[in-house]
């Protein structure tokens, strides 16, 4: 129950944090275990571009922090996680509210830990993809993130 309350407070915090708030995006759900996050990006005067469609910068910025945060919350203090690279592929102009659902499975978390434990280097890059879709599920943009993960072996138990 405490984790659920903490996740709701993070959701509220994201939505009030000025840097995220100005993207136009809103966090609608954070799972208590941080393995799923959902956002929506309303099509409003604040997110509309010159030609009346959703501004690409808003699309990207609304999706930016989540894979990094999800890994940070799930891997623990002995890991350092940074966004390293991103690209966005626009597929259809957005003229309605768009949604994104970020997920990280237990298998992916285990794979990250295993790769770092077996690796000769102390860092890896992981690639994640999320789609911005409308209410009907039509993909308007795909964002691909590269996340850098490293470990300080002296902190590991």
What are its keywords?
single chain, 157 residues, alpha+beta, three-stranded antiparallel beta sheet, globular
Residues in β-strands, percent: 25-35%
CATH architecture: Roll
Morphology: globular
CATH homologous superfamily? Answer: Hotdog Thioesterase
Low-confidence stretches at least 5 residues in length (pLDDT < 50)?
A: none
Mean pLDDT: 92
Give helix % range.
25-40%
* CATH fold assignment: Thiol Ester Dehydrase, Chain A
Largest sheet: 3 strands, antiparallel
Query: How many angstroms separate the termini?
Result: 27 Å
The level-1 CATH class: Alpha Beta
Element pattern in H and E: HHEEHHEEHEE
Domain unit count: 1
The strand order across the widest sheet is 1-2-4
Instruction: Note the total helix count.
Output: 5
- Structural class, from secondary structure content? alpha+beta
- Number of DSSP strand runs: 6
Rg is 17 Å
Pfam families: DUF4442
Protein name: DUF4442 domain-containing protein
InterPro entries: DUF4442, HotDog_dom_sf
Brief sketch in words of this structure:
InterPro entries: DUF4442, HotDog_dom_sf. Helix content is 32%, strand content 34%. It has helices at 2-16, 18-21, 56-63, 66-75, 106-118; strands spanning 26-30, 36-41, 79-90, 98-103, 123-133, 139-151.
Write the layout of secondary structure elements.
Layout: H1 2-16, H2 18-21, E1 26-30, E2 36-41, H3 56-63, H4 66-75, E3 79-90, E4 98-103, H5 106-118, E5 123-133, E6 139-151
Antiparallel strand pairs: 1-2, 2-4, 3-6, 5-6
């Amino acid at each position: 129950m405490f984790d659920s309350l903490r996740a709701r407070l993070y959701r509220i915090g994201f939505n009030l944090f000025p840097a995220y708030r100005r993207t136009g995006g809103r966090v609608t759900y954070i799972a208590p275990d941080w393995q799923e996050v959902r956002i929506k990006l309303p099509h409003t005067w604040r997110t509309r571009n010159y030609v009346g469609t959703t501004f690409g910068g808003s699309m990207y910025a609304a999706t930016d922090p989540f894979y990094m945060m999800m890994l940070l919350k799930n891997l623990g203090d002995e890991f350092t996680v940074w966004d390293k690279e991103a690209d966005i592929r626009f597929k259809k102009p957005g003229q309605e509210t768009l949604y994104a659902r970020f997920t990280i499975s237990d298998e992916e978390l285990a794979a990250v830990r295993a790769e770092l434990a077996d690796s000769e280097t102390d860092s890896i890059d992981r690639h994640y993809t999320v789609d911005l879709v409308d209410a009907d599920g039509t993909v308007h943009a795909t964002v691909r993130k590269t996340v850098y993960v490293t470990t300080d072996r002296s902190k590991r138990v």
